[in-house]
């Protein structure tokens, strides 16, 4: 399964800068707009995150150490502090052409679910 989310102006992503992006991961069928959204426990998942704009593509993975899982999982959003954190280095995007990046999209995919 994969999830797509737009990188918007509020993310303040610029080419050639260090950046960390933090994501809450909702359980299948649950959204942030639900009255009581349920969270997915991603501890132990192998994750991949991809950002693309035209022919420029950046991929990060847990295996490469550029994605980490932080915090403590709880099924209730109000108590859940677990986050998927993607680390982007300045050198990852320094070759990206100047332009508006708020239209970029990203997706994370649990490549392997823990057993």
Please provide a brief summary of the model.
The protein is mainly β and 115 residues long. It has one helix at 90-93, and strands at 3-6, 19-23, 46-53, 56-61, 67-70, 83-88, 105-112. It is globular.
Ordered list of secondary-structure elements with their pairings:
Blueprint: E1 3-6, E2 19-23, E3 46-53, E4 56-61, E5 67-70, E6 83-88, H1 90-93, E7 105-112
Antiparallel strand pairs: 1-7, 2-6, 3-4, 3-7, 5-6
Main β-sheet: number of strands, strand sense, barrel status? 4 strands, antiparallel
Measured between the Cα atoms of the first and last residue, the distance is: 16 Å
User: Could you say which structural class the secondary elements and strand pairing correspond to?
Assistant: mainly beta
Strand content: 35-45%
- Assign the CATH topology: Immunoglobulin-like
Question: Which outline best applies?
Answer: globular
Unreliable runs: 102-107, 109-115
H/E topology pattern: EEEEEEHE
């Amino acid at each position: 399964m994969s999830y797509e989310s737009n990188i918007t102006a509020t993310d303040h992503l610029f080419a050639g800068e260090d950046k960390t992006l933090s994501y809450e991961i909702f359980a299948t069928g649950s959204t942030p707009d639900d009255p009581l959204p349920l969270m997915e426990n991603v501890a132990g998942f192998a994750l991949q995150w991809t950002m693309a704009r035209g022919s420029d593509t950046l991929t990060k993975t847990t295996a490469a150490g550029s994605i980490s899982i932080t915090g403590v999982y709880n099924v209730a959003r109000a108590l859940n502090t677990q986050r998927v954190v993607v680390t982007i280095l300045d050198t990852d995007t320094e070759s990206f052409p100047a332009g508006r990046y708020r239209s970029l999209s990203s997706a994370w995919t649990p490549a392997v679910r823990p057993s």
